[in-house]
Write a structure and sequence with these properties.
With 204 residues, the chain is mainly α. It has helices spanning 4-28, 42-75, 81-95, 97-106, 111-137, 147-171, 175-203. 81% of the residues lie in helices and 0% in strands. It catalyses: K(+)(in) = K(+)(out).
């Protein structure tokens, strides 16, 4: 078994760093290179809207996944080799988000772009579930962890997974509907987090 104070802290540090780099790469993807001439046209504004819509979705998508990841590792107190690799898998799919975002904004409304992005989102959610399921099943969490906390992490992880699976399904025959589904998840997550926060406060 790897020591907590060394391996766990390094794992959390590199995870936060990779998430920050992924968001930075998203921001670097915003530009006006799609403008066709020195004068702005309505089509140029439309291209910028697609770019900003894809960026907004991905920014809050990454932020949401990071928030759940942070919640997981707040309650995990040790790691082993398998958990490290599950986390590396999660980071790999996080790093792919800037690429799938670029694809989504460039080929707006195309099946392949919506499919790749939805698949990317689903794979992040699946790897996130792997992390928490493995840690909790093998007692790698802190001794005292309430059912409420465990349920909240599982609910958020499952919401991400179900949303990604639905978006992937819709992407094959209605790409824009897949995009809308991915966007709808964001307010749902916010409302769910507020509910669990209020629940903990009332119990406290």
């Amino acid at each position: 078994m790897v020591e907590k104070n060394f391996a766990l802290e390094r794992l959390v540090f590199i995870s936060d760093a990779v998430v920050a780099v992924s968001i930075a790469l998203l921001a670097l993807g915003i530009g006006i290179k799609s403008i066709s001439s020195e004068y702005w046209q309505f089509s140029d504004i439309g291209n910028l809207f697609k770019l900003l819509a894809a960026f907004t979705l991905s920014f809050f998508n990454i932020a949401n996944f990071w928030r759940t990841h942070h919640a997981c590792f707040t309650h995990i107190n040790r790691v082993d080799e398998r958990l490290l690799w599950y986390n590396m898998l999660w980071l790999f799919f996080i790093v792919l988000i800037p690429f799938s975002t670029s694809l989504l904004s460039t080929f707006w409304g195309e099946t392949i772009a919506a499919t790749v992005y939805s698949m990317n989102t689903l794979l992040i959610a699946l790897s996130q579930n792997l992390i928490w399921d493995y840690a909790s099943d093998n007692k790698y969490t802190k001794e005292v962890i309430s059912t409420k906390i465990d349920d909240s992490i599982r609910i958020f992880s499952n919401l991400d997974m179900i949303n990604g699976a639905l978006a992937l399904t819709f992407s094959f025959f209605h790409p824009f509907a897949a995009f809308v589904l991915l966007f709808i998840k964001l307010p749902m997550i916010v409302i769910s987090r507020m509910y669990f926060r209020e629940g903990r406060s009332s119990r406290g």
